[in-house]
Na(+)/H(+) antiporter NhaG (Roseovarius gaetbuli), 839 residues
Amino acid sequence: MDIVLVTTIIASLFLVIAAADPLAARLRLPYSVILACLGMLIGAAAIFFLRTDITDALNPVAEAILALPIRSNVFLYVFLPTLLFQVTLGVNPRRMLDDWVPILVLAVVAVVVATLAVGYALAWASTLPIAACLLIGAIVSTTDPSAVVGIFRSISAPRRLSRIIEGESLLNDAAAIALFGLFMGFVRLGMPDPTLSDALAQFPVLIAGGAVVGWLAARIAVWIMALFARYELALISVSVALPYLAYIGAEQSVGASGVIAVVAAGLTLNLTGPARLPPEAWANLREVWNLLAHWAGALIFILAALLIPRLLEEVRASDFILIVVVTLAAIAARAVILFGLMPLLSAVRLSPVVERPYRAAILWGGLRGAVTLALALAVTESFRVPLEAKRLVGILATGFTLFTLLVQGTTLRWVIGRLGLDRLSPLDSALSNQVIAVALQTVREDVARVSENYELTKETVRSEAKRFGERLDGAVKAAEDDAAISDRDRITLGLIALAGAERDTILARFRERAISARLSEQILSEADRLIEATRSGGRTGYQRAARKSLRYDRAFHAAVILNNRLGLSGPLARMTADRFEVLLSQRLILRDLSGFIDKRIRRIHGRRVAELLHELQTRRVERVETALEGLRLQYPGYAEELERRFIRRTALRLEAREYEAMREDGLIGSELYTSLVQDIDTRRLKAEERPKLDLAVQKAELVSQFKLFRGLDARSLRRLTRALRTRYVNEEEVIVRKDAAAKSVFFVASGAVELESANQTWRLGRGDMFGQMAILMEKPRRTEVRAIAPSTLLVLDEARFVKLLKRSASLQEAVRATAEKRGLSKEAYIIPDLVAPKA
């Protein structure tokens, strides 16, 4: 084949890709539908010119188009890894975990149900063996929801819904291709029909093996990329190699799913990359992958569409009945999941509620595309598959793909319009009138300054000012007449805007390196949760999410158990240091939001809403500072080191900004600027290193600060430090329940707790203890203790407490003071005699 002609055809395809984007926007159709139509037209035209007698001038071009090396392996090994990998880099894995149930239902359960429904429907309607029918079911079960995602985003669909659909698009290809590989082996000549036990035995191996290979490949790649951190092009090149090596390694070396390996590799890089790579390099890496995925997605669609005319050449009249069967079975299976299983999961609170109009749009938006055609092509290329099975696989997969693209794809926007999803809600419509009025008032002020600065003629300014004033008066009147926004709704909208501004501030601080890349994703996830909680629960949801962000999670409690019981302090030290840094960053960000409330929210929603938001923001800042102060009291030296590190990083950022300003002003040349920036980068690497937190040393310092233990000698203090166990409790968590056996004494290191007994309450704070009276009275506890703030407690068992009480006069005095406060007589409890400590 002439290399010049092939190169010309490929370059021409890029011109087609370039034209498809504006054409799709103009026709208001999904981009993939336009690409598929153009590809089919090119393929049909090539066949027509080869077989017609009108002219032979275009025969070389037609032959070259039809002879392009379009094979299933090209799709699966070249284009598919790129598409999957880019999607994994664009999602938020931590936020996806919050919705893992609906994502897995749509991406895995829906694929399995569609495979079985199509397979058994075909087995009933055709003479194909059940293995071939299930193979066709696996081929047509993978969806391409990218078009419907774009439309949902254009109509401001809830972010959680968009995330669920993105998660489905990421994982359903993996599930479908894994099932395809499973049933393909049974379809080959000489293989028996599959049984349920065969499928269940092989499917987990495909998934688990691919996940392990992808994770391992990504960890090695991240380690190499960290070594090349100063060389941006080098680390981007490593990222390009990663999905292909993971895919090939899983498929060829392990016999597992290459698709799962690519997904696992991408998610691993997404989670670990921001912490190990420079922010600019990470941002540029994602931009490169966006471009690669755009080209790969367009090429895979247009090249697959070139095959459609050839795949349909042997179609028969009876095949159309089977296409209808496949279509009805696939749509019915998806409907069962969306309208049967999803509401059930929502009822038992395992999934967010998805409104019926959205579920209908997702159902009609289940477009099939290039992956379905690539899998069908793989079957037609196999010489071990019976001829009739190959013919039907190609025709049925192609026919169903054409239905989804040409019928569902072209009517999807109309369906969304009929469902009312393309219209603003009354609340958003009313808000838009107010936003327009405020914006136009600001524009009028700015235009007046521009007119004065440029000394425009008065007649021109007067005539234009009159036209603009009429529009402004209309906008103000519409805003005043519209009473659809209640005060409650204004507060909700203001809090959503405030949470959005918080997210933008986080991104800005990350780009300035005021927030470490390692923790930026975690802080961004908290901001996303804040936005969604406010959308669903208003002010109550905002406050609940804000409090939840300060809670100790399950992973933290697991790290505490590892430290207390097994002596493994590494995870707890790392998580405590992370909490320190997150709280410092949150305090920095929250203090920057007051100006946003005054400058933006006040103008749209009024003074009362702004004052309420200020009050809520002040309370949130106080809670963050309380949690931060608790950590500072526990680890005083470490808090100082972190603050020093923050100052050093801020100074480096400001220094780099000054050098950049001097270069832009022409005060220094590029050579000097490069030298100065390299020196800053060297110092920044040192400043980025977080000081190590030694829990043992910090715990000893904390214990020594308790007034209760001041009478102990150094040896006893060391023994006490080793004996005390640390316990972290969240707000509203019950620490001690009534009638429980008395086995431990608690010392409050930070935070506050509330004791309740006989309708009386006491509050204890740092340096206080509780639980000692039940031990000394040798009776079950009559008091319930609950944390009223995130708190840190030091816990001592009964035997060690009694020994300590014998040695500490200050501790005995504290016990007597507690007894007097509760009105207990001296006969009600017994304090051991004081024993002088050994020398």
Remarks:
- The chain has a mean pLDDT of 78.
- The longest strand covers residues 744-750.
- Strands lie at 725-729, 734-736, 744-750, 753-757, 760-764, 769-770, 784-787, 791-797.
- The chain is about 75% helix and 5% strand.
